[in-house]
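> example.struct
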């Protein structure tokens, strides 16, 4: 029984609730160090209620709040959220404007909560492509949480996994032309130094909401060995219990990184070698 975790959520979750039941299943010694989430399903959530899509995005902001605060209470070192991809610019202009407005509003309202929960904020992606008002709020949130030492919240904005890899290659070429290094010496570490996520560990757990079975151009290099958890829950309905459930499922899995499971003497079989 994870008494320390229960204490972190004291007066937050109700005794006997599903939240408490799931929290008690979590082994605090085997928590994922880095959780990445593809937040999907806002539009469908709104459509099912005959509401405009922006209503789904606004409801999704509540899920962001619950997930970020719960991750901080669990002492998850790294949390990365996929908020806006480069492909999202193709959406109707009014929806994009509403998304940018919600982002500004969220950052203004949540900066106090981020600081109270010892959360440091940063973004990845092509920030220069965002409107100035959004960039000002990002700068403020980053500046005011810079000294926080708890969960590092990374929000992917105007982000594309393929563009990230192209940019990393471009920087490598420029670096190598300047230094005269032999291209045959290129290593994975060289590429990782030039990714937007340089300095972050790869995600241990990738969560995708809304039941879609794809990674949507998100952290293509970094999720090579991430455990993938897909839930049919739409993002606006994703709450603390859903996060706990994803973590308990993660803890049931055996991570091998391409290796084989050790077998006991006399128990060698084809199944063991998979």
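> example.seq
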């Amino acid at each position: 029984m994870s008494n320390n975790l229960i204490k972190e959520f004291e007066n937050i979750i109700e005794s006997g609730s599903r939240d408490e039941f799931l929290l008690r299943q979590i082994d605090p010694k085997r928590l994922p160090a880095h959780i990445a989430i593809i937040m999907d399903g806002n539009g469908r959530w709104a459509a099912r209620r005959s509401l405009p899509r922006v209503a789904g995005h606004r409801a999704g902001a509540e899920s962001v709040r619950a997930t970020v605060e719960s991750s901080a209470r669990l002492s998850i070192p790294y949390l990365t959220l996929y908020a806006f991809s480069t492909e999202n610019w193709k959406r109707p202009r009014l929806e994009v404007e509403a998304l940018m407005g919600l982002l500004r509003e969220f950052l203004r309202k949540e900066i106090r909560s981020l600081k109270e929960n010892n959360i440091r904020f940063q973004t990845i992606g092509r920030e220069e492509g965002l409107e100035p008002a959004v960039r000002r709020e990002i700068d403020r949130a980053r500046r005011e949480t810079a000294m926080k030492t708890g969960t590092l919240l990374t929000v992917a904005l105007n982000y594309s996994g393929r563009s990230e890899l192209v940019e990393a290659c471009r920087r490598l070429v420029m670096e190598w032309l300047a230094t005269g290094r032999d291209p045959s010496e290129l290593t994975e570490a060289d590429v990782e130094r030039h990714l937007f996520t340089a300095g972050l560990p790869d995600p241990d757990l990738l969560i995708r909401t809304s039941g879609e079975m794809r990674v949507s151009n998100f952290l293509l290099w970094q999720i090579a060995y991430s455990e993938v958890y897909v839930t049919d829950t739409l993002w606006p309905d994703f709450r603390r219990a859903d996060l706990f459930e994803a973590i308990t499922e993660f803890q049931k899995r055996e991570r091998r990184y391409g290796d084989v499971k050790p077998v006991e003497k006399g128990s060698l079989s084809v199944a063991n070698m998979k």
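> remarks
Residues 42 and 56 are 4 Å apart (CA to CA).
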